Amino acid sequence: MQEADRYEWMRLRARRKVAKEIFIRDIFLSWYAKGINFRIDNIEKLIEWLKRETEGYDEIVTIGNSAGGYMAVICGCALHAKRIFSICGQFSLSHHNGHTATNPLLVKYGKEKFYENYRMIQKNTQIPVYYIYSHGVDHDCEQASYVEPLDNVRTIAVDSARHGKTLNPFDFPVLFSMEQEQLEGLFNAFAGRVVTADAVSIRIKGKIWLKKNKIMSKVVKIKTKFLYR
Q1: How far apart are alpha carbons 162 and 55 in whole angstroms?
Q2: Is residue 69 a contact partner of residue 32, using CB atoms and an 8 Å limit?
Q3: Which of 57, 59, 63, 98 is buried most, with the most CB atoms less than 10 Å from its CB?
Q4: What are the φ/ψ torsions at residue 158 (nearest 5 degrees)?
Q5: CA–CA dist 62, 83 (Å, integer)
């Protein structure tokens, strides 16, 4: 990993100590059709590289947002992950704003066998998939419909009109550190309804946790504005 590289989940990693963390990024913005660099330049090579990097580890968890969520599902299924977290990820690229026909790299390098990744979830029923999405975004709701019938997918529909903006950021490290029973309880509590990010925060750690972290977030924003004004 290059020192200057930026990865979306660096600041929101799990709170519990883990043996190894791997961060990847789609620098070509093409749903990883061109891989992550000029050496690992397609999805198959990326999966094989991740298999080598995770060999010998008992518990693998994959996490991603949007296109990263799409890839978290593909890699999680290929690696037989313990669980998968997809935040506003896609389950059917064939039904996602026509990108398979308009994104030049997808047109040239995309492979249809990866487009409908919900079929991989169907074949890996032992892997729980936790999907959190913005209910106010039409294409997020459409993507959610593809996994709604699947028994191993749990969803939380957040009252948000912005793609990728779902839970309060400070909740993700706690969420990613939860045990299976805790996750099932959380997602079952909100099944079948639209909830606010704050409601999820309160369920996770309580009202004091929510209030404290909101104050801290405001302080950070003020400091950042002061430093860079």
Answers
A1: 37
A2: no
A3: 63
A4: -100, 140
A5: 7
Query: Left, alpha or beta for 16 (phi > 0: left; psi -120 to 50: alpha)?
Result: beta
Global confidence as pTM: 0.90
Tokens of 75: 């890699």
Task: Give me 191's structure tokens.
Answer: 């099944």
Q: Which residue in the block uniquely carries the two structure tokens 């099944």?
A: 191
Nearest of 131, 138, 61 to residue 95 by alpha carbon: 138
Q: What is the pLDDT along the chain (229 residues), one digit of tens a residue?
A: 444 556 666 676 676 788 999 999 998 999 999 999 999 999 999 999 999 999 999 999 999 999 999 999 999 999 999 999 999 999 999 988 888 889 998 899 999 999 999 999 999 999 999 999 999 999 999 999 999 999 999 999 999 999 999 999 999 999 999 999 999 999 999 999 999 999 999 999 999 989 998 888 775 555 455 444 5
Map out the domains of the chain as residue ranges: 10-227
Q: CB count, 10 Å around CB of 10? A: 11
* Backbone region of residue 207 per phi and psi (left: phi > 0; alpha: psi in -120 to 50; beta: other values): alpha
Nearby residues of 201 by Cβ (< 8 Å), 6 or more positions away? 167, 168, 170, 171, 209, 210, 213
- State the fold for domain 10-227: Rossmann fold (3.40.50)
- Here the tokens at position 196 are 């606010």
